[in-house]
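Re: folding output
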Amino acid sequence: MELKNYIRDIVDFPQKWIVFKDITPLLSSPEAFSFVIEDMAKNLVDIDVIVGLDARGFIFASALSYALEKPLVLIRKTSKLPYETITEKYSLEYWEASFDIHTDSIKAWQKVAIVDDVLATWGTMWAAIKLVERLGGKVDSLNFLMELSFLDGKKNISSYSINSLIQY
């Protein structure tokens, strides 16, 4: 399946010179979405937990959690989780932010697959990795629908197994 046919470019969003990759056409297609989840699931062998990143990573991580019958853990923007959390700051292409994770969400022995929609720069993924590792989890793989290769985000996280279905 040619997944790029289901990704729409939105020019100058959220700011000038950015070309946003809109995944809503893919999500609107049951065939394309099912294909993505089945293909992503092939790489998630022998894991204990699936971690999804706020917000679009939740979509793919929750479907994978259901399909693989694995626990789902959410990494959210700071102050969005109701229980005790730890925080990690990160930088994006156009701002700085931070992520939180519940302190009891991952156990030290667990192998973790982290899921997000896109690998652009490495900031958000690095924060997620640090949160999982601070809780003692072992990051097994980093999983994306798409990768913006021209931004070279992979170079700073290349010591981890990285899976992307679409490359730009």
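--- second protein (sequence, then structure) ---
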Amino acid sequence: MIAVWKRELQSYFMTPIGYVFVGFFLLVSGILFTFNNLMSGSGDVAAMLGSFTMIPIFLVPILTMRLFSEERKNKSEQLLLTSPLSLTSIVVGKFLSALTVWLLTLIGTLLYVLIIGSYGRLYWGEIISSYTGFFLMGGCFIAVGTLISAVTENQVSAAVISIGINFFIWVIDSVIYVVPVAFVSTALQWFSLYARYDPFARSQLGFSGILYFLSFMTAFLFLTVRVIDKRRWSEG
């Protein structure tokens, strides 16, 4: 797993993908920070991260689109699948590489926090809670993108489908209220990442919220393993 993680992490920065992701995220978040915090004189870190919540919808698929789609396109998937590593180790290693890039990107946004701190008081409980929730929510988007990459062969298709699913997750709270069937509405609530992120933004760092995000990631990674395992057996 560690070998896969290292290889994939290096590949992000040996190609433009890692730089494009980090650069665009910091560019867009910097613009939002300038307008929502600097120009308005706001020192609310939770509100700052709240204004960033749409960015992962469109940018995280850049990280995940190549994880397995590239292997299938280059016909190198079988070499990977016949290695001594287990499928779980391969999937988790690839997932962790994308998650590491996500973490490094968020560390870059701490510059905004330092700027806020130079003008006023920082509330570290709010900062830790908000960043923890934002990091975990991004991890869930990465897990979704990992699954989509495993079921598609084309990177562009993987990115487009991931964006569509991420956008649905973003609007799911509005969809829940118009669904007449109770059990369908209840099922949809499980996919409401933003509803689970809200307590973190209000400095409520709870075990249940962390467990939900970890369960969400685990479920999608489990499905990714099952999809690849089924394809391996079907292709002989």
